[in-house]
Design a protein that fits this description.
- Two copies of one chain form a homodimer.
- In chain A, helix 7 links the parallel strand 11 and strand 12.
- In chain A, helix 2 packs across helix 3 and helix 6 packs parallel to helix 7.
- The radius of gyration of chain A is 18 Å and the shape is globular.
- Chain A has two domains: 163 residues, Peroxisomal Thiolase, Chain A, domain 1; 155 residues, Peroxisomal Thiolase, Chain A, domain 1, CATH 3.40.47.40.
- Chain A has 334 residues and is α/β, with parallel strands linked by helices.
- At the A-B interface, helix 3, strand 6, helix 4 and helix 10 of A face helix 3, strand 6, helix 4 and helix 10 of B.
Amino acid sequence: MITGKQSIQFAQAPYILETASIAGKKEAEGPLGKQFDIVETDPMLGKNTWEEAESELQRLAATEVLRKSNLKASDIRYVLAGDLLEQMTATSFGLMNLSIPLFGLYGACSTMGESIGLGSIIVAGGFAEHVIALASSHYAGAEKQFRYPLDYGNQRPLAASWTVTGCGAVILSTKRSHVRVKGITTGKIVDFGLKDSMNMGACMAPAACDTIYQNFMDFNCLPDEYDKIITGDLGYIGHDILIDLLKEKGFDISSQHMDCGIEIYNKETQDTHNGGSGCGCAAVTLCSYIIKQLEKGAWKKILFIPTGALLSKTSFNEGRTVPGIAHAVILEHC
Amino acid sequence: MITGKQSIQFAQAPYILETASIAGKKEAEGPLGKQFDIVETDPMLGKNTWEEAESELQRLAATEVLRKSNLKASDIRYVLAGDLLEQMTATSFGLMNLSIPLFGLYGACSTMGESIGLGSIIVAGGFAEHVIALASSHYAGAEKQFRYPLDYGNQRPLAASWTVTGCGAVILSTKRSHVRVKGITTGKIVDFGLKDSMNMGACMAPAACDTIYQNFMDFNCLPDEYDKIITGDLGYIGHDILIDLLKEKGFDISSQHMDCGIEIYNKETQDTHNGGSGCGCAAVTLCSYIIKQLEKGAWKKILFIPTGALLSKTSFNEGRTVPGIAHAVILEHC
């Protein structure tokens, strides 16, 4: 089952039984707008703070994925979840009332790859019948957390990404569906010494390169093994860097590569500069557009690689670099 | 293997192959002082910031556990780690140079229970031969993060705990040793509505009660199944509440209960008020005193329950409650 240095190929591949996606107004106005299960036009989601609003995104996504799958919270053995807020308060307050045993995860924007990876290990190992894996982000909460509160009205440089307001949730299960998690490649921290928190695509691209390259090595395959190779939130800048870095290692993924941060907003009309980012970016794109292509077999096999930038406002203010991490998941139509 | 509502009993129980503990000056002056592998008397560990100092604790603990076990970083399939800083920067910067695939975890001060739990699932499921599970905290970093920077010289109320400066690391392995992880009980978020971040023992005691009670139910056992029932960092106040809450549910654990936060400092001479806390509290106590009792068979079977308070300074300032979570691990001499 262990394959190569960093990968697992599941003998009993867990299925993605169901998914749910919830996104905000701006995301609904983008190219994927019609694909989301729930659209919330109120950025506060009826709450008093951005942090509570993001908690509500998680609560709604978890509730929706249970509803769609006809399962109750008590049918779920574990929830594996994370967000971008300090000490993961969106997760703690959002999932509290579910009363499901919780493994809290932090992988920055790579969290959806981490939660599906660990969730798949749990299900494939025979330790659960159903688990929920989810991740969320909120534009306003993330700006306040990492950069400046929106009220300051700071100007966003062209390299900046726009944090997606949304949450995606999947149920990983032993029960058969049309999409399964064939394997995973778990990422290492990769630091190229970049320090610009307004250019996270560049900070994360080396980590994406490292994980994708390792996936090719561990499974002894070429890019055309996959119909799509989908990174989380590199955006336009990170996309170019990733293509270049992998070419240097002898692999050209330009015909397979897709990036959720590029797909989710309209480049010309939505003024998001480098594209979308945040845990929610990869999560809602997976749980809407991507999963539908896999379910109907339009894509047979993809590599999904959410990418995370490992910074805090304190590490940034103290002059530290912004290392990256990327966790890959192999998804297959079946 | 699945037992009851929230527990696993491992058919192939992973072994704790080796442990390492590093602690600071105050911890070294406490009752467990002679048990730690490394004592660092410089609170900055030669670094420029508290955050870098905590990263160094993680780096040193991971390096030491590899040295003690005669393993190389490349022998370790995964590291599962966490800390208390926003966006887990101690973990990101501390473990970067190991180049081991990383699962970042956030369970507040329950993280050592979460990392051993997930690490055991990975090893028991056949997905790794060796993994490292670790957790750290730093007194000055935590005060700055959750309450006030030390420079403000604020007065600590008598209910406050003293965050342990330290890191504990274990190697979970298929290779035989004298201590094994027999099972786990994974906690849910429990919120009793308390809001005082200066009285975290009270905030976490209901979660400890919930997990311990569930462990008794899932394994159909009584408190005397265990030689010791060891919570992470409830301190004196949380200890009293836990004993009372479990009595209300029909279980008296007063003769088995021990708390790492009570053990680690001297009540009379060290002025820590409620005792020790932080991810590092349970982690260094496990990786020094507790593991030695299990290795020599002085204790045959214990329940180890690190306890976490799920707050951030933002959630506190916004008037939210402080929910708790507790993850239990059954450790056995063999």
